[in-house]
Amino acid sequence: MIDGMKAEKNKHIAKELRWGRIAAQTVYFMLGVGSGTFAANIPRIKDSLMLSESMLGSALLFLSVGGLIALQFAAPLIRKFGLRTLLSMVVPLFPLVLIPISLSGSYGWLVVSFVTYGMMTTIGGIAVNAQAIDIEKAYARSLMSGFHAMFSVGGVIGAIIGGLLASLGVSIFYSMAAVGIILSVVGMFVIMRLLDSEKYDTAQDHAVSERPHVHHKMAWWRQVALLGMLIFACYLTEGAMADWTAIFMNESHAVDPFVAVFAYVVFTACMTVGRFIGDPIIEKYGAFETLVGGSILAVTGLLVGLLSPSLVVSVIGFGAAGLGVSVLVPIIISLAGNIRNGNRNAAIARVSTFGSIGLMSGPALIGFVADESSLLIAMMIPVLLLVFVGVAGTMMRRSAEMKYQTSKQSA
């Protein structure tokens, strides 16, 4: 009788975990679709408001400003409302912010809507990352790479939908409003299946006591700072590849725009594939080993892509770089959420802040260095940063000071 009740309870828990995992994957997918739709409509917004490149660039900076503002409040909001409650509020609302963007009739309104969208998506991203870490703990295995793969897939689908609607002559408002409303409706169903972490003993913040020892606080900050530098390097690389790959291919191989863009498409596609297959690799070889291996593959791929005189080999190199980069951010986010002796949500927020800075500053840094020297030399910056990621990963693996509660260790 007791065994039967226990088996029934375990079956119920397994079902809730499975639905929680699907719900989190759907939130990642929704964030990706929103991001892709947003990106696909930027050129039309620029034309409709008759913005110059510099005006559009400055407006897009406010997207990052909104994200940086949200990063400062994400952890306190999770602490006050609880992870599941905060996600339940944000998930149906963030897609609707696409609507005021589509209605922007002035530069000022565009800036305000960009700040709002940046804040909402950033809070949603941090919260769903925390939820994904809870699910990893409940399953006692790596799942983060697969979650981030859903974001990548959503981004591609959102961009395709946005581009298709634009080609059909659908207005910016109807295009973005349709996607926003559909995502919001999906979100209202998704939130009913979000994992209640408290049921599975995964919600502990590993918070320090009210009077923590100084060395505990210092150790927490050292780990957060190191992981922040690593994710800065990774996001700077992704931003540089997004904005400069096509230009580099055009300058180095004198190809037409389609072929130049195709190199970045290959990079993105391989990054998406890498995230889908990343979790089994992390489970088999370990987080730190995969971090180092991914860095080596990314560095090798970038060097081949940048230095090869052959167009085909160069594209293959960028694809290999995409595979290598794919697992780096998921691993770092997972490590940030599992640092001992500190607030989990604060760690994710702080590390994400470094990532946003890298994504925001990377393309501009590449452009500045390229103006002073050459684009080839400028593109070596991501190569050097990824070398740093690999070296740091090796040191973290060997250092007795860095102690993480990885899902494999806690299993």
**CATH homology superfamily of the largest domain:** MFS general substrate transporter like domains
Structural class: mainly alpha
Radius of gyration using CA atoms only: 21 Å
Number of helices: 16
Q: Note poorly predicted spans.
A: 202-215, 400-411
Structurally, how many domains make up the residues?
A: 2
Distance between the termini: 28 Å
Q: How many β strands by DSSP?
A: 0
Order of helices and strands: HHHHHHHHHHHHHHHH
Mean pLDDT over the residues: 83
Tell me the overall shape.
Answer: globular
Largest sheet, strands/sense/barrel: none
Would you summarize the structure shown here?
The chain is an all-alpha fold. It has helices at residues 2-48, 53-81, 83-93, 98-102, 107-139, 144-167, 172-190, 214-253, 257-285, 287-307, 311-326, 328-336, 344-372, 375-378, 380-398, 407-410.
List the SSEs and their pairings.
Layout: H1 2-48, H2 53-81, H3 83-93, H4 98-102, H5 107-139, H6 144-167, H7 172-190, H8 214-253, H9 257-285, H10 287-307, H11 311-326, H12 328-336, H13 344-372, H14 375-378, H15 380-398, H16 407-410
Helix pairs in contact: 1-5, 1-6, 1-7, 2-3, 2-5, 2-13, 3-5, 3-7, 5-13, 6-9, 6-12, 8-9, 8-12, 8-13, 8-15, 9-10, 9-11, 10-11, 10-12, 10-15
